[in-house]
Every structure is written in C-alpha cells, then in structure tokens.
Amino acid sequence: MANIHHLAEKQPEIYSILKKIGEVANSKEKEVYVVGGVVRDLLLDRPLKEIDLMVVGDGIEFANTLAKEMGVKKIIPFPKFSTAHIPFKPVPIEVAAAREETYNINSRKPQKVIYTDLNGDLIRRDFTINAMAMSLTPDSFGELHDPHNGVKDLLAKQLITPLDPDDTFSEDPIRMMRAAYFASGLGLEIDKKCFKSMKRQADRINIVSQERITTEFTKILSTPKPSVGLIILQEVGLMKHIFPEIHIMYGMDQTKEWHHKDIFYHTMQVVDNAANLSNKMELRFAALVHDIAKPNTRRIDPQKGYTFHGHDAVGERMLNKVAKRMKLSNNLKDYLKKLTLLHLRPIALAKKEITDSAVRRVMVMAGEDLDDLLTLCRADITTKNPKKVKQYMRNFEQVELKMKDVVERDTLKAFQSPVRGAEIMKVCGLQEGRIVGQIKFAIEEAILDEKIDNTYESAYALSLIHISEPTRRYAIGCAVFCM
Questions:
Q1: Average of per-residue pLDDT across 339-354
Q2: Distances (CA, A) of 147 to 130, 134, 144, 150, 162
Q3: Do 170 and 144 meet the contact criterion of CB atoms below 8 Å apart?
Q4: CA 322, CA 227: separation in Å to the nearest integer?
C-alpha cells in the first residue's frame, strides 16, 4: 500500500504542494493534516485531484494565510462552518476546521458546530476508510493517523462506519448513496450492519436537496461498473425515492429474446455495456433511461407475449418530468430525450431491408449524437444467443458502413432546406408562420426520399414547378409557390 512519499515520484507537483502547506503550517504553529478521501486515494495509489485539509483551529484564518503564500488572491469562505475553498491550480484546496456537528432530525444541515481536535473530527466522518489523516508538519510529514482501522477495512474491501450506522446515516442520509458509490467505484462490500441500517433509513433521503442527490447519482453512473451501485440503491429501498421510474422496472418481465427477462436487470446490463464502451456519463445515463417507458407500455399479445409499443416516444416525453424533478441541465435533458426516442431506429434498420433513405433519416435526427446513438444500440444487445448476436451484428454493421460515408455525414449533421425561410416568404409574399415551415419540411422530405438532389438549384426548382399528386405527398405546402 502506497504512502505519501510515493507522490514524490508519481505526482511530484502535488508532493511539492503538500510540503509547502506543511511549511506554512509550521511557520504559523498550526496542526494541519490531509484527510478523508485524499488519504484513502493516496494509500490506494490513485491520482489526487484535490487536496482536503483539516486544521486544528480557525480554518478560514489558515486558508487566508495559505492562499497568500500560494499566490492565490481570493478564497471562498464559509464562515458558519469555518471552512474555505482555495481555487489553486493544478488542484483545488479545501480547508476545514476540525469540528463535530449536531443535526436536527428533519434536516441534514448542521444545527450546531463544535470545534474539536483531530480525533473528534475523524470520528464524525462517513466511513472508516475516510476517517484517516496524514500529518503535513515537517517533523512528522506523512505520519498516518488511523484511529478507526481504516487501513484494515480498505485492505479487507469493507465499508464500515466509525459510529453506529444508524447515527451516521441519520445525520446525513446522502452517506447511504455514497456507500453505493464506494461499493461501485472501489469494489468494496458494504458491512451487513450498515446495509440493514440503510434499509431502515432509506426514506430519510427525502430530507436531502435534489442537487446533492443528483450529483451522487451521476457519480455512481461514472464508476467502472455502475450496476453495482444502482442495484444497491434498489435493494436498500433508495431507488424508489431517488428514481421511481427505474425502481418500478424491478421484477417486471419482458420477452425471452433478451438475456434478462426482468426489465430492471436488462437495463443494468445495458448500463454496464455502455460503461465498457464509453467513459461518457451522459451516455450511461441514456442507457439507464432508454427503456424508461416499458412499464407504462407493457401489454400482453397472445402470439408475441409481452409488447412495449411506443415506449421510445412515451419515454422521450416522460423525461421532461424526470429532468425537472432531478434538476438536470437542459443539454442533458435534450440529449437523453433524443437517444431515448431514437434508440430503436438503428435496430429497426438492422432487422429489415436497409434503404439509403431510411439511413439518412436516422442520421439527420441523431445529428451530432449519432456515434453515441450507435454505441447505445450496441450496449442494448444483452442476449446470450450467439446466433442472434451474429445475425444482429452483421446487419447492424451494414448500417454503420453506410453511415460512415464521411462527406454525407458531415452534410447531414447540419441538414436543412437549401431554400431558406426568408426566401420562401419573399417569393410567396408570406409572413413568418406555419406554412413556411411546411414548405421547408416538404423540400427536406423530397431530398431525404431522393426525389431531388440536395442542392439549392433542385430545391428552388421544386418550389417553382407545378406539383404532381405523387410529389404532393412530400411537398405539402409547396403548391403555394405555383399560385
């Protein structure tokens, strides 16, 4: 297991920063330690992306002193908790006073903060693996303080709370989600006592702000095997509070075509497949919600068994409500809606005769997210029937080959009618409105269906000729041009 001196070789810049912090602390006769996740990651020989400091005494006072020595002009203080953020590069530095906290039963915000010493600070932390500290004082630099056997639990891959888990989770219920995150991200097993406590207190997650819940949820999605954490959320009863649309999938059957008959476990496999194919959290989120409407659209057909007609379109609409509740960004909401709506389109192309027109339509609708859509479709293959996989992939690869026409792809990503709205209004004497959009749509449809070339001349010509009945199906309002 690594120690602080390994940083001298692995991350020399971080090592120098820690040495500098120790020198500043020594000059001010302050007791300063790196704590929590920093120590855990250092022992695991993981890269340090931030520095968490604990100072015995006034945290803001030391943060101001340290920032000045480090050449940082301004800190972000939080006087109520005697903590401060130092926006230092290459790594941000968080400074906190050693403290204990008491909580109101109906809120996770500390009711009272009591300043304490090193041991008093460590015992209030979430898990023993995060209840360790290393001294930065020059004469004891790197000395480990581990009063709750965090190293032992880390080696045993166990997740245990320093105090009774009922107290730990009741004080700050987000710690239950962090347990799922550490299990998923570090391959740890949650202690049985902690697991039972999480089950008892799952509903206390409702006192936590949605922003914190969503942050921890996306962190779970960012782990190497997200299903580990997601299944824990389901098993302890947190999922029904955090993401009821996913919770309801549990135990709900689907057809035998897939490896997992249960919709929930099929979805977990798709998320893990997506994680194997991409580090992009947003794509893993799309994998999680791609079948979100299956419970709402499930029907039983006498011949086919379970059907989920329209679950792509219904799911796309459901995500408006989900995004609002979870306070997702507009960009993430739009991305999830698009991939959910389109996730069956490439699969449909792979299951029937493929036409250039059909491929173009999918490409236009996916736009810049086409690669992610195709990755999601690959992740959605969970059957273990080798013949089905081989047949599916052979057809699917044909679709991808057509889509890899780079020139056409670049053109279609920004596809729009070559004759723009302003010109249509000028030629027709129209005001801005629905009919202008219909005419543009008609031209685009004619191009996609290869009735005309994707050029200005062809589009303008279509606008001026008399419209025949067969063409009228694709040109809708273009007859206006002929008046």
A1: 84
A2: 11, 12, 10, 8, 9
A3: no
A4: 20
